[in-house]
Amino acid sequence: MPEVVFSVDQSKSMTEQAVPGHNRWHPDVPAAANVRPGSEVRIECREWTDGQIGNNDSARDVADVDLTRAHMLSGPVSVEGAEPGDLLVVDILDLGPVPQESGPAPGQGWGYTGIFARENGGGFLTDYFPDAYKAIWDFHGQQATSRHLPGVRFTGITHPGLFGTAPSPEMLARWNAREASLVATDPERVPPLALPPEPSGVLAGTLSGPDLDRIGREGARTVPPRENGGNHDIKNLTRGSRVYYPVYVPGAKLSGGDLHFSQGDGEITFCGAIEMGGFIDLGIDLIKGGMETYGVTTNPIFQPGNVEPRYSEFLTFVGISVDHDSDTNHYLDATLAYRRACLNAIAYLSKFGFSPEQVYLILGAAPVEGRISGVVDIPNACCSLYIPTAIFDFDIRPSTAGPEASDRGSCATAR
Ligand code: ZN
Q1: Ligand 1 centre and the CA of 290: distance in Å?
Q2: Where in the chain are the domains?
Q3: Ligand 1 mean position to 263 CA, how many Å?
Q4: CATH number of 314-413
């Protein structure tokens, strides 16, 4: 086993760990560990809300979650010799739930998928699903089942939702300025267009007092992906992947967490993955001057791993960039097209006895494939959603016999 360079006791919050992690992007969050290029290390992680969601049958905890504490990240890990302009090479050697433990923290044998309330987080279909819902998943080796989604079982595509390097002070200032400009276009919107720095709930490793207050005032929130990586939620960043992160500060300061047991493309419920704490083993190396050498300026690049669930048969739902409620065309809008594909899948699978919320949870968590199929056929973009038929213990294909409707239980609600 690689050396544990960031350890977590899952019975304690991140704030109470021997060396705490952090929940804002800022160059001045002190390094929690130092590693050499060429080393292989283990990093232990809390689930992204730091354990606010419980293994129970109520979604009150999702409705009331304190998002100022998210995402709870492990690190930063400083890499010896890394300088701005380098590429940090990160091999995802292995990852999984908390090993050898069962207990109340997500990742201790179980995980969850949440639909967040429009007033507190929202999600891709929040206009259609404004309330909070939840499904608890039990882990069986590589497979997951849920008492809230009977008849569904699949092999997870385990991956970290969020890893990235620290921004430089200049880059952080640019992020804050451009996101503030976006918010200013519609400051009263619910959910907000972006999340500005938030002093409440801030954690920045061992910092306290005025230093911590400054991180709270300046530190970027962890929700969006940005130039440094961040919250990509790319399900194919699984075991065997190699990621090349741009380096913007001395030491690179790699941080991450938000481990997922599984997720569909788009993570559509916002917390659509199966969320868990756990461990991730990384190989760390450097390509000196790699950003200039390879023309990498605003983005990580990666090679996907070669370990993933093998599903070969799918039922595919198409969506186009038309708002069918008002019969309005939106010019080549791929986001709307993907939303329509999801809504079309929900309408279809609801005919088999699931509630629409249950299907929404399944689409977030199961290894569904989302594709941008066409963005040139004016005026309609076309996106498609591929659902593996084998994840259901009944046949979901259309037939003259009609759908096999059955009592499929219910997901956890906030009522
Ligand atoms: Zn997540």
Answers
A1: 29
A2: 3-303, 314-413
A3: 9
A4: 3.10.28
CA of 113 to the centre of ligand 1 (A): 9
Per-residue pLDDT tens over the stretch 243-287: 999 999 999 999 999 999 999 999 998 888 999 999 999 999 999
- Tell me the CA–centroid distance for residue 114 and ligand 1, in Å: 10
Q: Give the closest residue to 271 by CA, choosing from 412, 77, 406.
A: 412
DSSP assignments along 8-63, one per residue: --TTS-GGGSSS--BSSB-TTSPPSEEE-TT-EEEEEE--TTSS-S-SSSB-HHHH
Give the Å distance between the CA of 278 and the centre of ligand 1: 12
Q: How far is the CA of 401 from the centre of ligand 1 (A)?
A: 39
pTM, full prediction: 0.97
Which residue is associated with the tokens 């008492």? 147
Q: 329 alpha carbon to ligand 1 midpoint, in Å?
A: 32
Domain 3-303, what fold? Answer: Jelly Rolls (2.60.120)
Distance 328 CA to ligand 1 centre (A): 33
Query: Distance between CA atoms of 249 and 149, rounded to whole angstroms?
Result: 45
pLDDT band (50, 70, 90) for residue 415: confident
The CA 175 to ligand 1 mean position distance, Å, reads 22
